[in-house]
């Protein structure tokens, strides 16, 4: 079994360890997370382990992307379990800072991507969320000095927003996307699935089912967004334990609205199931 990773709480300790690894000629891989690891997180970590000489995982339930009234207080936390799982995957370093280490008192600097990428999907429903995500990621990238950072396609919009930030600020790292890891019945893995009662867990499978059916409809030649969106809406609204927040079809690179499904598009949903707000998406790639 691999040695337990070292767990540190300060930026200075991270810099020291990472500096040592870099001095030994290793490349640095980073997987930023909020912890409560599941197979989705472990997929990012395994990819980082395979591609980088030194792997840093951050575990930080960052208060700023949680708009008021969301689940910051009750978000699942399991540092001990996470350290054990990270050890089994050969992680070198866990950075689990207190909030004050990432947000020192009196800080006044934030990083915000503006424009179409944040004006659709989750953007209007979670005011300040992406500004919180980009601010914390910019700070974590700066602290860890990573060559590559790994993000899941499950949070598709987040991935595009981070890529935009990295391009715009000319940050010297590569963002590596990792496909969504699902349960056997298709439900996208999420720390928030822990909130689901058994009947809600069953009902939540409608999300991926509805998205997959839309994917099949595209394969059989449908190109009209309205028909696809109506199909998804109808399937989800037929499930009484699920309350749809949005379903949108957008260009997979720019998130601009699409009139016809011709290029790569992303079909994305957000829905409430009991206390959990769940998101999922599929990328549609119609044959030319
Ligand atoms: P979180 O701890 O939920 O903030 O997620 C940390 C990272 O893991 C993000 O890059 C997520 O996109 C990624 N992630 C979460 N769930 C999954 C999943 N089911 N499959 C792939 N990546 C995921």
Structure description:
The chain is 37% helix and 19% strand. The strands form 2 sheets. Strands 1-4-3-2-5-6 form a 6-stranded parallel β-sheet, with helices on both faces. A 3-stranded antiparallel β-sheet has the order 7-8-9. The protein is of the alpha/beta class. Helix 6 (129-144) crosses helix 7 (156-168) and helix 9 packs antiparallel against helix 10 (225-237). It has 2 domains: 6-178, HUPs (Rossmann fold, 3-Layer(aba) Sandwich); 191-284, Pantoate--beta-alanine Ligase, Chain: A,domain 2, CATH 3.30.1300. It starts with 5 loop residues before the first strand and ends with a strand. The chain is built from 10 helices and 9 strands. The protein has helices at residues 11-23, 39-51, 79-88, 99-102, 122-125, 129-144, 156-168, 198-203, 206-219, 225-237, and strands spanning 6-8, 28-33, 54-59, 93-95, 148-152, 174-178, 242-251, 265-273, 276-284. The protein binds adenosine monophosphate (AMP). The site of adenosine monophosphate has 17 residues, from helix 2 and strand 5.
């Amino acid at each position: 079994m691999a040695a337990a990773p070292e767990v540190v709480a300060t930026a200075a300790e991270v810099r020291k360890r990472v500096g040592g690894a870099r001095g030994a000629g290793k490349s640095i891989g980073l997987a930023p997370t909020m912890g409560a690891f599941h197979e989705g997180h472990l997929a990012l970590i395994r990819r980082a382990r395979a591609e980088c000489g030194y792997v840093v995982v951050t575990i930080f339930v960052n208060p700023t992307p949680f708009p008021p009234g969301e689940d910051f207080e009750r978000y699942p936390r399991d540092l001990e379990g996470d350290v054990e799982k990270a050890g089994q995957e050969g992680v070198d370093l866990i950075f689990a800072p207190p909030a004050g280490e990432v947000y020192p008192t009196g800080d006044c600097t934030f990083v915000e991507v503006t424009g179409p990428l944040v004006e659709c999907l989750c953007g209007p429903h979670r005011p300040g969320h992406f500004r919180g995500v980009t601010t914390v990621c910019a700070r974590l990238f700066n602290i860890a000095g990573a060559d590559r950072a790994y993000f899941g396609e499950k949070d598709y919009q987040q991935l595009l927003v981070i890529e935009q930030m990295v391009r715009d600020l000319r940050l010297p790292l590569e963002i590596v996307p990792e496909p969504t890891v699902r349960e056997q019945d298709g439900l996208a893995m999420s720390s928030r699935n822990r909130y689901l009662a058994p009947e809600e867990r069953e009902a939540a499978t409608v999300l991926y089912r509805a998205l997959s059916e839309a994917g099949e409809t595209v394969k059989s030649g449908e190109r009209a967004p309205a028909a696809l969106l109506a199909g998804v809406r109808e399937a989800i609204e037929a499930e009484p334990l699920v309350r749809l927040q949005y379903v949108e079809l957008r260009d997979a690179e720019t998130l601009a609205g699409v009139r016809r499904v011709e290029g790569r598009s992303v079909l994305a949903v957000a829905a409430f199931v009991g206390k959990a707000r769940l998101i999922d998406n599929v990328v549609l790639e119609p044959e030319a």
